[in-house]
Write a structure and sequence with these properties.
With about 160 residues, the protein is of the alpha+beta class. It is built from three helices and seven strands. Helices cover about 20% and strands about 35% of the residues. Strand 2 and strand 3 form a beta hairpin.
Length: about 160
């Protein structure tokens, strides 16, 4: 059995109107953004993010109007006990890199049935309240800091304390 690599991405997909795409997990029935682990240790973060978005939603981040941005945020957290069997026996924590994918508008979504059962678009504050993961909620609340749309004021990118 090949163990999962304890490095993953979280990709918040949103429109310029601050609507966030939410996916319902097939295993836990909770809402989340796109997430996924690296396929191999040296897989670049950006490639992991592109691959996971395509696998989970069939959205091609290289399509016109799409803007995938590495937000430069990382979360280090304890892996839930129910998922530890997927990792090597000595692994207890995961490093998560946060990305945002800005879309000009809502786009068609095709779910990976083994991972997700439903999707919905929600205003970003509602989405932050509905997601299961605290790091996902925090990332959604940061999205205004990374907008490319001049209709919304941009703030400085948030910084994480060591």
């Amino acid at each position: 059995m090949a163990y999962k690599i304890p490095e993953s991405v979280l990709v918040v997909i949103y429109t310029r109107d601050l609507e966030v795409l939410m996916l319902k997990r097939a295993d836990m029935h909770t809402w989340q953004s796109v997430t996924g682990s690296k396929d191999f240790l040296l897989e670049p973060w950006l490639e992991t993010a592109k691959r996971e978005v395509l696998e989970e939603t069939h959205i091609d981040v290289d399509s016109p109007g799409c803007k995938l941005l590495d937000w430069g945020l990382e979360n280090y957290y304890e892996i839930y006990p129910a998922y530890r069997h997927r990792y090597a026996p000595t692994v207890s924590h995961n490093l998560e890199r946060v990305f945002g994918l800005e879309l000009p508008r809502q786009v068609p979504v095709v779910l990976s049935a083994r991972e997700h059962t439903q999707f919905k678009w929600r205003p970003y504050l509602e989405a932050a309240d509905e997601v299961f993961s605290p790091s996902n909620a925090e990332a959604i609340l940061h999205l205004k800091n990374f907008l490319h749309d001049d209709r919304h004021p941009r703030a400085q990118a948030p910084s994480k304390r060591p």
